[in-house]
Amino acid sequence: KQEVTQIPAALSVPEGENLVLNCSFTDSAIYNLQWFRQDPGKGLTSLLLIQSSQREQTSGRLNASLDKSSGRSTLYIAASQPGDSATYLCAVAGANNLFFGTGTRLTVIP
Amino acid sequence: DVKVTQSSRYLVKRTGEKVFLECVQDMDHENMFWYRQDPGLGLRLIYFSYDVKMKEKGDIPEGYSVSREKKERFSLILESASTNQTSMYLCASSLVAGSTDTQYFGPGTRLTVL
After folding, report:
1. pLDDT above 70 (res A54)
2. pLDDT exceeds cutoff 60 at B78
3. What is the reported pLDDT for B96?
4. I want to staple B4 with a disulfide (CB 3.0 to 4.6 A). Which of A29, A56, B52, B106 is the partner?
């Protein structure tokens, strides 16, 4: 069964820093990988989706990469802002199921 | 914008009660999903549906059932609520069959079973 791991579980950075969040998965036979943001007590918001044939996707200050062979993805956030504070979840898509990591809780300090 | 709504943000029920959680999406999506989210365990799939009256078990279906009588509505049913079903429940939908499409999530229902 697919297992998804996100390290670290929590991260604090000063405003303006660039940062990288990590996601690893055990089974490289995936359809895509998705990054989500979750604010406290709220649902998930989709940030980026990388198809299995792609290496990266960009949206604004966010860039996600995918290395299927090594079972890794990274989410790069440029010039972090206090509004970026949230929990970031990665999810790996199988045929009918998304397998989620437990998330990285990011705090951007003004 | 896709909108997924859930009937309650917070719910408190007693052990043994029958509990209904409702989810509605307004974008004519084929797929709908129910997850629960627990600290340290992440999101786990309970059930999903890829068409009206169709349902498939996810990873943790025990103690739950679902109903999809209309395309836009997907209900999660706890036949006899237990304390270990205290959790955050999240509904999601996606346009096409399978899990290869972006999923859109509702705001969640925090259920407490006493």
Report:
1. yes
2. yes
3. 76
4. B106
Q: Are B40 and B58 in contact (CB under 8 A)?
A: no
Instruction: Measure in Å the smallest separation between the Cα of A18 and chain B Cα atoms.
Output: 26
Question: What average pLDDT does the structure give for chain A?
Answer: 94
For residue B100, is pLDDT > 70? no
A56 φ, ψ to 5°?
Answer: -160, 165
Looking at the complex, report in whole angstroms how far the Cα of residue B107 sits from the nearest Cα belonging to chain A.
Answer: 4
The beta-carbon contacts of B24-27 under 8 Å, at least 24 apart in sequence, are B24/B72, B24/B73, B25/B72, B25/B74, B25/B93, B25/B104, B26/B2, B26/B72, B27/B2, B27/B3, B27/B93, B27/B95, B27/B104
* Mutant choice from A30, A98, A102 vs B, greatest count of B C-beta within 10 A: A98
| pLDDT mean over A2-31 | 95
Tell which of A97, A99, A105 to mutate to test the B interface (max B CBs under 10 Å): A97
Query: Is A6 a residue whose pLDDT tops 60?
Result: yes
Q: Do A102 and B41 touch (CB under 8 A)?
A: yes
Q: Tell me the mean pLDDT in the region A2-18.
A: 95
Chain A partners within 8 Å of B107 (Cβ): 42-43
Q: Do B41 and A101 lie within an 8 Å CB cutoff?
A: no
Helix, strand, or coil (residue A26): coil
With CA atoms as reference, the chain B residue closest to A42 would be: B107
